[in-house]
Design a protein that fits this description.
Layout (H helix, E strand, L loop, with lengths): L7 H7 L4 H12 L3 H6 L7 H15 L4 H5 L1 E4 L2 E4 L12 H10 L5 E5 L5 H9 L4 E6 L2 H14 L4 E4 L10 E6 L30 H10 L3 E8 L5 H10 L3 E7 L5 E9 H7 L1
Parallel strand pairs: 3-4, 3-6, 4-5, 6-7
Antiparallel strand pairs: 1-2, 7-9, 8-9
The structure holds glutamine (GLN).
Length: 275
């Protein structure tokens, strides 16, 4: 290898990745800003830097998502650590946070089920500090990342290691979840192979987690349930909410105009008085 191939502008030319990804990798390895990468494009990498770059370059070429390579993803204008134990936060999930914030009274008790990186719970808490936020996850490895993100970002949240609502005893004003909702035969699934499959799919029809959350939330809710789901699951989710006695049900579309969130109201307190 000649010396020229260690220079930033030559690395950019030699790369088989798109230019933005190559730049992101170089910035990460060198600790440069994007501007520095331009103004110092004649910088020659040390052998060690070039080796680190090549390692990440190979992962990127193999299809690993950039968030896993860099170890973080931006969500709701904050940086969340991620690893292959957590789903990568998606921009459409920011709408779920917006909707919780629009519905939650200032001191509301909020429960986030299957929190993953913690991005929903932490964003809600940091946007509205008076909220009392609890977040659960079945997987200790994911919960560890959520706890670490909450500590880094200064969000005071109660974390519980449990499967959906199985470890929950309290009543909440808002229950929110972005559960695994992709069906096992969905053609998008193979393209998401680097992410934890149990966070994406129920290995069945894509509705098992949604079904369980709707069924089990009733006993713990005095307010709204908000569920993120696939573009074609709005009517199934609505039917299930109707079946379990939820009221004021509506489905919200994301910025791509696809059905993305279904909301329903249920009052454990009302049903208590009704009985
Ligand atoms: N929205 C994600 C995707 O389609 C799936 C997230 C989920 O299953 N909760 O890639």
């Amino acid at each position: 290898m000649n010396d020229k191939s260690l220079v930033i502008k030559q690395i950019l030319l030699d790369s088989n990745l798109n230019r933005l990804d190559t730049k992101l990798l170089l910035c990460h390895v060198l600790g440069f800003s994007r501007t520095q990468l331009i103004t110092r494009d004649d910088y020659k990498l040390t052998r060690a830097q070039f080796e680190s770059y090549n390692l990440l370059y190979a992962k990127c070429l193999a299809g690993m998502p950039m968030a896993y390579i860099l170890g973080y993803k931006e969500f709701y204008s904050r940086i969340f650590k991620v690893n292959t134990n957590t789903l990568i936060p998606r921009p459409e999930t920011e709408l779920l946070v917006d909707t919780v914030l629009a519905l939650a009274k200032p001191m509301a008790k909020v429960l986030d089920l299957g929190t993953g990186s913690g991005c929903i719970a932490i964003s809600c808490k940091l946007e509205q500090q008076a909220l009392s936020v609890t977040a659960t996850d079945k997987y200790p490895e994911a919960l560890a990342i959520a706890i670490s993100n909450a500590a880094d970002l200064g969000a005071d949240i109660k974390f519980i290691n449990c499967d959906w609502l199985d470890g929950i005893t309290d009543i909440y004003d808002i229950i929110v979840s972005n559960p695994p909702y992709i069906a096992n035969n969905d053609k998008h699934l193979p393209a998401l192979s680097f992410e934890p499959q149990h966070a994406l799919t129920d290995f069945f029809d894509g509705m098992s987690a949604i079904r369980k959350i709707i069924e089990d939330s009733k006993a713990h809710l005095n307010g709204y349930l908000l569920i993120e789901h696939g573009y074609d699951q709005g009517s199934f989710t609505t039917e299930l909410m109707l079946k379990y006695g939820f009221r004021n049900i509506r489905t919200i579309r994301d910025y791509a105009s696809l059905d993305r969130i279904t909301i329903g109201y249920s009052s454990n307190v009302d049903s208590h008085f009704a009985n």
